[in-house]
Amino acid sequence: MVITGTVPAIAQLPGIGTVAPSPAAGPAQLKEAYILGPGDLIEIDIFNVPEYSGQNGQHRVLVDGSLNLPLIGSVFVKGLTLQQAAKVINDGYAPYLTRPIVTLSLEEPRPLNIGVAGEVNRPGY
Predict the structure, then answer these.
(1) What is the mean pLDDT of the chain?
(2) Which helix (H) or strand (E) holds 38?
(3) What is the pLDDT of residue 9?
(4) pLDDT tens-digit profile of 48-84?
(5) Are 42 and 105 a contacting pair, CB within 8 Å?
(6) What angle do CA 30, 35, 36 make, to 5 degrees?
(7) Is 38 within 8 Å of 64 (Cβ atoms)?
(8) Domain assignment of residue 21, yes or no
(9) Pairing label, strands 17-19, 73-76
(10) Per-residue pLDDT averaged across 92-99, rounded?
(11) 3 within domain boundaries
């Protein structure tokens, strides 16, 4: 049995435990619950700042869980939701831009390897 495809990340909430998105959840709910990690490709859109938005705003989360952004440098986003990461980036740009409005979207989730073991025809990744 070989399983392929993209699996949404499971949220780790402090003091609560592990929370997985409901299978009946829509795409918007999955994006709210998605936790950023190394390898994710996100698009940053800063309202009225086209040089940091769109294609120029596409960034891949680095192995250490950070993004390297113009003006503000390294921003740690591993373990944050898209909304939380947008707030961190917004706060980083606040000293440089007048009232920045930052929107993040997930362009490509990180690849997840899933191992299958036990009594199956073809165990492996």
Answers:
(1) 79
(2) none
(3) 47
(4) 888 888 777 899 999 999 999 988 999 999 999 999 9
(5) yes
(6) 125
(7) yes
(8) no
(9) unpaired
(10) 92
(11) no
- The reply to whether 118 falls in a domain is no
Query: Residue 5: CB partners within 8 Å, gap ≥ 6?
Result: none
| Residue 4 lies inside a defined structural domain of this protein | no
Higher pLDDT, 38 or 31: 38
Whichever domain contains 66, its CATH number is 3.30.1950.10
Measured between alpha carbons, how far is 74 from 32 in angstroms, rounded to an integer? 23
Residue 89 corresponds to which tokens in the numbers above? 């980036």
Domain count of the chain? 1
Alpha carbons 64 and 16: distance in angstroms, whole number? 25
Q: Which class for 82: exposed (0-12), middle (13-18), buried (19 or more C-beta within 10 A)?
A: buried
Domain, as residue range, for 40: 36-108
